[in-house]
Amino acid sequence: MFILSEDSQRTQGRDAQSSNIMAGKAVAESVRTTLGPRGMDKMLVDSGGEVVITNDGATILNEMDIEHPAAQMLVEVADSQEEEVGDGTTTAAVIAGNLLAEAEDLIEQDVHATTIVEGYHEAAEIALEAIAEQVSQDAVDDDVLKQVAESSMTGKGTGGLTAESLAETVVEAIRHVEDDEGVHRDNVTVHTQIGASSNATELVPGIVIDEEAAHDAMPGEVEDASIAVLDVELGVRTGDIDAEYAIDSIDQLNQAIDAEESEVRGYAETLAESGADVVFTTDDVDERISSFLAKEGVLVFDNVGSSDARQIVSATGANRVGALEDLEESDFGAADRVRSQNYGDDDLAFVEGGAAAEAVTVFVRGGTEHIVDELERAIGDALDVVSTALDSGEVVPGAGATEIAIADKIRSEAAGIEGRKQLAVTSFADALDVVPRTLATNTGQDPIDTLVDLRAAHEGGERAGLITDGETVTIDDPFEYGVVDPADVKREAIQSATEAATMIVRIDDVIAAE
Fold this sequence. Notes:
The structure is a single chain. The chain is an alpha+beta fold. It is 48% helix and 18% strand. The strands form seven sheets. Strands 8, 9, 10, 11, 12, 13 and 14 form a seven-stranded mixed beta sheet that branches. It is elongated and about 100 Å long.
């Protein structure tokens, strides 16, 4: 009797576990060399020839054409890490892969998968306690936030800019959107523009959108702008049905033309008299209206995307109006300056200052598409981790020091755990060693000797991290060198890696339909 389709493939027992674990380990290995300040980049080429060059873990895993369902779970780990805290994706994936490798050894020793899962979850709870013990007691001020940002971007592609200079921009942007309710991270956007050195990257106190003025004769810049945002077609009204009109004389033709001109002029005069200096509309603007408004000194942008219109409304305090006759002065938004600027083949609109200062834009420049794309990813991650650190007020040492401390605490606690579960708890600690070992490998150090030295320094009461300072690699206190991470990044990495690894380990039957 056939229960499954004859075309179905089924893998059971140890073979299923081995296949899933192998897939997870392969995914982790693919991003391992990108970890740390000396991490390498990956070049990813899709079937269409599009090239992505990055060392961002989430980007690498998402760009890879991964089909194995267990391997997809590690991609989800990176996605979850990116969504929750914005960084630590490579760390989470590498830890998950090593947890699977340790689990494979335990399974070969006949430790049941359920025992491994229980031990891993217990070890994860100990790990979270260890992270809390590593939190710095100093206040998270601007200097610490800059260190968080710089630590996040060190080793990533930042063009001709140093991570230190970008960190100042990142912290300034996050402070700009902080109020008594917390940090409004969504009010910070990153806009990229090819065509200049990355040194031209700047912080714009407002928003930047890809729009050009509706008429060449319109002013390129408006100071102290009153802004109207419309969902209105500014042109001759057309009916919803097909209709033909018979014109029997020149007089009738002239009357029709005059009526059309009167309607067009009416729209133009209404807008000009409304007091709006700048108009954004999501629909078309008749060229005659644009020409008239240009003469009146009104700057108009037409066919604005709906998402851009929402952004303008949010940034300037304007009300979005659906009918021109409903437009009132109370619907206007405000900005210190609105300007239209050309960058080669692209035209951008800058809405700056005033009410728009509630939102800020990191305007990223770079000589090539690959440079600005990687800069955008690096700055985006830095914005996320600075926001996370500022919200929680908790930072921990980086450079592998926190993982060394976690592993040491787990090994100490494991001695009090009975049965085979103790093996799983100890294996969890061993899995965390992958972070300092990988950092050592990527900086050209011997991973075993480095791990021994780090453990010895930690057991001697020191904070022990692997510090890369130029060409020098030393074991020292990361706080002294400004190498710090938000505590929430470490917590999320431990939790998401544990969840993924335990889910994969528990699978002993894979049924795949053809």
